[in-house]
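This protein record is not my work; I was only asked to verify it. The record follows directly below this note.
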Amino acid sequence: MHFTCDKAEFINCITIAARTVSQKSTISSLEGIYVTAGHLLTLTGYNLETGISVSMEADVKEMGAAIFPAKLLGDIVRKMPEDTVTIRVDDNYKCKISSGLSSFTIMVGPSDDYPNLPDVEFDKAVWVPQNILKDMLTAHDRVVFNGNGYSQEWVEEAARRGLPHIKTTPEALEVLSREDSIALMEKYGVLSRAELLARKEIQMENFEKLIDIEAKTCLNMLNTIYMPAIAAQMTDICGTVASIQAAGIQAGLKAAAQRAEAIGSLYDELPGKVEALTQAIAEGNPTGMRAAMESAREVVDALEAIVDADLWPVPTYAQMLNIHSK
């Protein structure tokens, strides 16, 4: 690849493309700008969510493509003394950037490593003047969030914007019976008050039935699967401790006793978890059932990490993720 272009325009294109370059990515090529030299010089930035391609005129002497480190490319071109910049990339991806008497040599990446941007059907595209699009984005920035919507980051951002953060199904369904929700649906003829309230009641009933099924399944698993398996583990370890003591040796005794203590302490917590879950089911309390199941799961997850894999009665996380120790 070999081309010469206007320095100021090239800097402007680098700045635009760099806006969507990933700062940190498991795909290293996304941390660079993809530059292609053909009939036009095109610079692309992409982070798997947003991509920008910008083109400019250039004197292309040899067509080609390469991935340039975004920040380094911008810093070098800005330091160039003349109004034009020449870039040449050889077959080993060694790149020489020159202008007047100044030159820099850097390594760039092969273009094959850059992921393809999604295809856009331009026959269905809508062309919007840049200033209008900018005004639209600015006006509606309050509802745009490009972070992780499943993390604490969104909880904090929602609070900052004054937006609701609804965590549970009952809370979400409660919105359906609010007067402003009913007024909105009736205004546009979507649902009447009676229809909206009926929908809320039906969905809440379905939710409560599902939680009840999950809670009873959880209780059954605790009583008939997990607790017997943990009891078998305790019997096995205690047998080991007794055998060591009978042999009159100390080596291994402390480790076996500590492991029995760790498993036994968690085992002692399970009857209380079973009792709490049983009571919540009897009361028909979905919120109590979920809390009791989550509490029991914490203990079971901790036991999974220390009980023998051969004795654990269900597939472990490692097995489900196909992670096997050798």
